[in-house]
Amino acid sequence: MHLKARPNGRxxxxxxxxxxxxxxxLNAPAQDGKANACLLGYLAExxxxxxxxxxxxxxxxxxxxxxxxxxxxxxxxxAVLARYTVA
Length: 87
Hints:
Layout: E1 2-6, E2 13-16, E3 22-25, H1 34-47, E4 54-58, E5 64-69, H2 74-83
Parallel strand pairs: 1-3
Antiparallel strand pairs: 1-5, 2-3, 4-5
C-alpha cells in the first residue's frame, strides 16, 4: 500500500481521494519515529489486523510511505479503502 503521511494533525484520519491517493493524517509528531509508530498502530486498527502484521517497507523519514499489510485478503483490503473514499 502506498500512502502519504501527514503528521501533527488533530486526530488520526485516513482518506482516499477519487484518484486512489491514500492520505493518513496522524496526531503524532514526525520525530523519533513517533509518527511511523502511530501510523502502523492506526492502520492496524483500520484494517482489523495486529500491529505486528504491518511492515513499513520504505519512507521511514519521508512523507510518502510503502506499507505491507499481512493477513488480509485483497478483497477485504479494497472493501476497507472503499469506506474511506471521499467523493
